[in-house]
Amino acid sequence: MIIVLKHGATRDEIDHVVQKIKERGLTPHVSEGKERTIIGVIGDERSIQNLPLSVFPGVEKVMPILSPYKLVSREFKNDDTLVEVGPASAGIKIGGKRLHVMAGPCAVESLERLMIVAEAVCAAGATILRGGAFKPRTSPHTFQGLGSEGLEHLVEAKKKTGLPIVTEVLDTRDVELVAGSADILQIGTRNMQNFRLLTEVGQTDKPVMLKRGLSATIKEFLLAAEYIMKEGNHRVILCERGIRTFETQTRNTLDLAAVPVLKKLSHLPVIVDPSHATGKWELVAPMAKAAIAAGADGLMIEVHANPEDALSDGEESLKPPKFQAMMQELKKIAVAVGREL
Ligand code: PEP
Ligand code: MN
């Protein structure tokens, strides 16, 4: 259920409601919006059935949450969530007027190769560096990533460029290690419903970017995000990265309609990854433009200096000059839809 507090409810009134809910063994999630404070109550509501919350001081009304997902829903929080990334001094907030582009190689292959791309994407206007250290590869015989050494290279690239890092965590056993280096923990498409992993990253204090599962419905996607938020980590970013359909001309089918649907159902920011969605570098720029026009809050783009030599996903990686040209084009689209890049 949702408890909507009166405009101007005092701190004591809010704390009183929170305390009463906790006493009955339920978890209150307080959301302080621009207009008013809302408390989402998660758990078995039978234990508060006889608690007259609607007459508590400072309470305006008590409403059921009708959607199957609670904390991620617009019913729980009407204002868009801004996810702050890196130190506050970096000023990166995903979900606001300004769009953010996360760019870098599919995988960290060496420090040298990473630095070339990191410097190029930084100069072109990317605000976050991507790169996989732990790679979820379809075949066990292909490059699986440099692991902890890859994380060290990412940290080095961050020191040199100042760009915060987004990188994937594949396994519950690596959450602490990856969270020690990453500014955003990425949950890949193959792990979208790895509930233990979602719970684990929900217990960290790092933003989490959750990629949509290969065949996940929007409802399943939002319920996966709910697992993270339920643990108390409300800094969740959703990422549409294409879904599996009958089409074979592209690697996946970019579900662009998911962007406005997600923005309507949820307050969480939405990023689009046209690289994995299409699997073809020629399609990345057109789909990136379309994503911004559709209301995405940012993009994730794969870039490699020599895609022909890439250890993974060379076919969908942009060379730095192409990335830079695309960024210039995207600025125009951003302005046309009232955003900034
Ligand atoms: C990635 O972004 O590195 C990745 C593996 O993407 P996805 O999980 O969407 O396939
Ligand atoms: Mn990739």
Largest sheet: 8 strands, parallel, barrel
CATH class of the largest domain: Alpha Beta
What strand order characterises the main sheet? 7-8-9-10-11-12-13-14
CATH architecture of the largest domain: Alpha-Beta Barrel
CATH superfamily of the largest domain: Aldolase class I
Total DSSP helices: 10
Strand portion, in percent? 15-25%
SSE class: alpha/beta
Identify every distinct bound molecule in the structure, by name, code or SMILES. Answer: phosphoenolpyruvate, manganese (II) ion
Q: Note poorly predicted spans.
A: none
Mean pLDDT equals: 96
User: What is the element string, with H for helices and E for strands?
Assistant: EHEEEEEEHEHEHEHEHEHEHHEH
What is the fold named in CATH at topology level of the largest domain?
TIM Barrel
What Rg do the Cα atoms give? Answer: 21 Å
**Using DSSP, what is the number of strands?**
14
Helix content: 25-40%
How many structural domains can be distinguished in the coordinates? Answer: 2
Task: Give an overview in words.
The protein has 341 residues and is α/β, with parallel strands linked by helices. It has two domains: 2-63, Phospho-2-dehydro-3-deoxyheptonate aldolase, domain 1 (Alpha-Beta Plaits, 2-Layer Sandwich), CATH 3.30.70; 83-336, Alpha-Beta Barrel (TIM Barrel). It has helices spanning 11-23, 111-124, 148-161, 175-179, 195-202, 218-230, 258-265, 274-278, 281-293, 320-336; strands at residues 2-5, 27-32, 37-42, 59-63, 83-85, 92-94, 100-104, 128-130, 165-168, 184-187, 208-211, 236-240, 270-272, 298-302. The strands form three sheets. The protein has an eight-stranded parallel barrel, surrounded by six helices. The longest helix has 17 residues, at 320-336. The mean pLDDT is 96. Bound molecules: phosphoenolpyruvate and manganese (II) ion. Manganese (II) ion binds at residues 106, 276, 302, 312-313.
